[in-house]
Design brief:
With about 250 residues, this protein is an alpha/beta fold. Helix content is about 50%, strand content about 10%. It has 13 helices and five strands. The longest helix is centred in the middle third of the chain and has 16 residues, at about 90-105.
């Protein structure tokens, strides 16, 4: 992990005082900027604080309170099955909240939502019904392409709980440090890769993978195009209009 020292320091600071209120870390940035990778680093760091890191990617469950809670219970290694609560979704929510409260007795719980922009109508339920009933020391991470807006920003109660963490491309020194860790130390190659990626993490990672497999000087235009095609595919997911995305 390079170039995210401030974000790592912020996370350490949030976990260093177990009794403080958790609040919300709002990670946001364009596709391929490294949000999910940073969440994975947060997960690893949580273990050193005896904190339970619960990652919920919105693509992994149906967007309904029952399915979210059952998914969360599975992450908590609960034996509750859908058939046990299908007649009363409220029971699943109660079981879920109780499980988090119970785990909080042994250390802080970190509840991280990834790909939050795809949560849809569930966002209202989370904000109004679920999150307010979590233990106050629960640290919530909301990661997505866009910063929290609307009622998150207009409500003084929510606004004071949110700490915004915008993620941008890596600077040249971070790119150079990353390349050195990957065994690429020639200044000429570093400059070429920097000129092609401008520090965009996904582009950088894909291009380095290609570089390690081939002589960089011999990479064909088609190979380079393959790299950027994957990046464009990630960026097009940000286009809200399907028709415009197809044109792109």
């Amino acid at each position: 992990m390079v170039g995210r020292e401030k974000e790592i320091e912020l996370f350490h600071g949030r976990l260093a005082i177990p009794s403080q209120k958790g609040g919300i870390l709002n990670l946001y940035g364009t596709g391929g900027v490294g949000k999910s990778y940073l969440l994975d680093e947060y997960r690893r760091l949580s273990a050193s604080y005896n904190a339970k890191f619960l990652l919920l990617d919105s693509r992994d469950f149906a967007h309904h309170p029952l399915d979210l809670c059952l998914h969360l219970l599975r992450v908590l290694r609960s034996s509750v099955q859908k058939r046990d609560v299908s007649s009363d979704p409220g029971q699943a929510v109660e079981l879920c909240l109780n499980a988090i409260k119970e785990r909080s007795k042994d250390g802080r719980v970190i509840l991280a939502f990834d790909t939050f922009e795809e949560m849809g109508d569930m966002e209202y339920w989370l904000r109004e019904e679920f999150l307010p009933n979590l233990p106050p020391e629960t640290l919530i991470i909301i990661s997505g392409r866009y910063p929290l807006q609307g009622l998150w920003a207009s409500s003084p109660a929510w606004r004071q709980m949110i700490f915004r963490v915008p993620l941008s491309d890596l600077n040249y020194l971070s790119v150079k440090a990353y390349l050195e860790q990957m065994g690429i130390r020639q200044e000429e190659k570093t400059q070429l890769i920097w000129n092609k990626t401008k520090g965009h993490p996904l582009t950088l990672s894909l291009l380095v993978s290609t570089t390690l497999a081939h002589d960089f000087q011999k990479i064909s235009i088609s190979n380079s195009d393959d790299v950027f095609a994957q990046v464009v595919h990630a960026w097009l997911k940000e286009v809200p209009d399907d028709r415009l995305a197809r044109v792109g």
